[in-house]
Amino acid sequence: MRVAAATLAPNQRKEQTMSEKWLHMTACDLGRAIGAGEVDPVALTETYLDAAHSHELSDRIYARLTEDRARAEAKASKARADIGQRRGLLDGVPISWKDLFDTAGVATEAGSALLKDRVPDADAEVLVNATHAGTICLGKTHMSELAFSGIGLNPVTATPPCVNDLDAVAGGSSSGAATSVAFGLAAAGIGSDTGGSVRIPAAWNDLVGLKTTNGRVSGKGTVPLCDRFDTVGPLCRSVEDAAHLLAALEGGKPADLRTTSLDGARLMLLETVAFDDIRPEPKTGFDSAVERLQAAGAVVERKEAPEAAEALALSGILFAPEGYGIWKDVIEANPDLMFPEILQRFRSGANVSAPDYVAGWRKLEDLRKIWNARIAGYDAVILPTSPILPPNADRLLTDSDYYVTENLLALRNTRIGNLMNSAGITLPTGVPSAGIMFLGTPNSEERLLRLCAAAERALI
Fold it and tell me: Which keywords are on file for this protein (predicted)?
């Protein structure tokens, strides 16, 4: 139980104020403070664990904490810091993990009763890499069931709330990953993105979210949804954090974000589909962001891209069939354990024929070539991250039409990035829960991170 500041001695109040400040610093700023001897990794980890225990919403954000592991990793990080042998900037920084990344000896259930008490023997490869980089594993966060929803509603396990509206959903499927950061319960979160599952919760909780190119970051030891679309990426407080977390996940080096500028940057504003049925707040946030990017020197050109609409039309014959193909036997063994809306979405994949699926992929590959040729002369494509704000959780549970409409609209813009296998980043616009998305060509993460580092400064 937290003691009221008024009852503490001045030195205790100062310590409490400092520790509370840690909870809202960027991951990289915390890393610099550890390197400077200003922050003890053990004290930092205990501060985050205490926050997770005391926060009234913690049970809706964390599926389970990994306290013993976190404390052991923090002690090892402190020992390295004490002798000047830190492994990198993020050594000693506590982060959360979406509950589809395997953790050795700790349940990984992917937000589903179908996987209850599933305990893997080994860590996911990305967790191995991040641990080697010195990050501290705080615990596993709640998510949409089997990652197959962009809104983050999960009546089976828990539904994390949006930081801007506690009655609304947080966005999915990496809902707990986003809210662990937004509510100050982790310095960063690691999620996955198959149709927008990093970028939607990041945008709706005013964070930075990085969608990586499919196949770039290892999915080994990650509970799959659609292998041909699944990606791994961070949700965090800054573009710098995203760059360093990507490096940690891969075991590589972070992008060099020094001397970045928007002066002369060419941005293609996608007009096809992206603004259909857009709500006022996301449009206001996007329009305001575009004005600031232009004021910082960016050149914005409005363009149509019919191939984006054609690709979106293929969604129904590409995502659900692969997801159902992976999970059919598990689902049909105990279908009553699933949230009916998610069950229905998976089962829709059974209605797609193999010839249609193959033809759909061949068509998508052709559309990707057209898209990449169209955007090749631009530094990025920009569009609203989502055309809607976070929907009301109670109404989603009681109004099926509302659920379907909001779920499809939530992921509509982000799904373009997955269909085209683009690298993508969402940034906050300053309007609550309204993000601006930057899409690049496949494997352009470093270039996109450099651009977004400059854009981030223009949008602050």
Answer: Transferase
